[in-house]
Amino acid sequence: MVVYPEIHLFGGADLAPDANGWLADAAEPLDGPRVAALAEIAAAHRIWLVPGSLPERAGDAIFNTAVVLAPDGRLVASYRKVFPWRPFESWTPGADWVTFDVPEIGRFGLSICFDSWFPESTRQLSWLGADIVLNLVKTVGDDRAQEIVLAQANAIVNQLYFLSVNAAGPVGAGGSVYVDPDGRVIAECTGAAPAVTFVPIDPDRVRDVREHGTVGLSRLAHQMWPGDAPIHLPAYGGSLTPQRRTDDAAPTPGLPGVPRSGDAPTGGG
Amino acid sequence: MVVYPEIHLFGGADLAPDANGWLADAAEPLDGPRVAALAEIAAAHRIWLVPGSLPERAGDAIFNTAVVLAPDGRLVASYRKVFPWRPFESWTPGADWVTFDVPEIGRFGLSICFDSWFPESTRQLSWLGADIVLNLVKTVGDDRAQEIVLAQANAIVNQLYFLSVNAAGPVGAGGSVYVDPDGRVIAECTGAAPAVTFVPIDPDRVRDVREHGTVGLSRLAHQMWPGDAPIHLPAYGGSLTPQRRTDDAAPTPGLPGVPRSGDAPTGGG
């Protein structure tokens, strides 16, 4: 899979006096010529292609939309950024969480830049069964240090790969960071120079960490047990429950936790 | 305020062959002699005292409960750990999120150890208006590195102080870490030796970060605007809305974001 950062094909927008207007003018529907041309590239090279996100026109709305093209050129997924970087970006916020499956690898979730600052985003993708979250970023911000912490945290609390792909200079600060399900940085791209980074993904690592715990200790995916009362979450008008899940392909929160052995734990909680 | 870590007065439990049974045997109701004695200490020294968490008996249930004693000896708050470290700990899970106010300082939220691994915990406390979260910890785990990441992340995404107070050796690994609302570590206690750390809290820092953004950039508390559609969160059967809030003292998610100036942002999102 070849993955590019947020708004990759429009990086120059930042150099325009009115970036929001420039991007709106460049927006197309997803059935327009731009996505068709990208699909041809994916098919010609027989690759999974995530060409960054694109300005998408849908009626009066302009979304910041990540698209995923399969090796046969099909548009298999599109995700509209739920958390635009307000008040600076004028994107219409998206309303849906999006995942897609890649055979032999796993389920991917889509995330764009500022989404990583809202733990709700990665949490929903995890609950939808994501094993790997692609976070497409374009930032030159002084807060990239915070984003690297958040990339690790999103990986840790959801026990998945979290891949934060930032734009190179001059439109981005680089510093892409690729985190495994234990929260360890397994690859990174320091500095803002353009670069290609190869990130190995092992689907068994996700299953292993969820089954045996983060660094072999904490089994977050097995926290709730059948019969537990729902945990009320007033900020959302909702709850965590042992039962709620979306479909058979989702992970299995709610399964009882089974100690790996009779030994005393070596951790703590 | 003097704060001790999780189960501080019962650290030896880990050395017992049956820690859960040992702690259950030691449990008392909160109106029992143990809390009364702690209240006397708080009153005698005229201090806010968080003596770690205590095993609390309530009917057949045994909770891991943080208590807060005011300088006049009143028990002003108690919080039952919502996320016990399963399957190793046999505490009954708590069901309520708890905050308390300290004049001149701000609103504190209570959190115990493994709670920090569930972003829902700190999020609810933030939504209830917490400016400072006390996370009382007792871990010797190999995952303290992950917890330090999570302490920073919980501070960043909620723009509050997150104070992770871990037990010293031999029952804990130490490594307490104190994080400001930008996610910066402002004090820490490396190593497992017993130590007292003074942590300065500036209530204006919370207000400043929420108003002007993390490192002056990202204004998370102002993300949702009146009229925004709710953001559906299927994992919780709930949503983020501009309107939902708990009471007048809560922060003001839902206020429109107002750019600080007409300048182009120096960050990205």
From TrEMBL, chains A, B:
- One Pfam family this sequence matches: CN_hydrolase
Q: Does the keyword Hydrolase apply?
A: yes
Q: Which Gene3D superfamilies match?
A: Carbon-nitrogen hydrolase
Which keywords belong to this entry? Hydrolase
The UniProt entry, under SUPFAM superfamilies, shows: Carbon-nitrogen hydrolase (SSF56317)
Top-level taxonomic group? Bacteria
This entry's Gene Ontology molecular function terms read: hydrolase activity
> Which segments carry the region annotation Disordered?
235-269
The keyword Lipid biosynthesis appears for this protein: no
Which residue intervals define the domain CN hydrolase in the entry?
A: 1-203
Q: What is this protein identified as?
A: Carbon-nitrogen hydrolase family protein
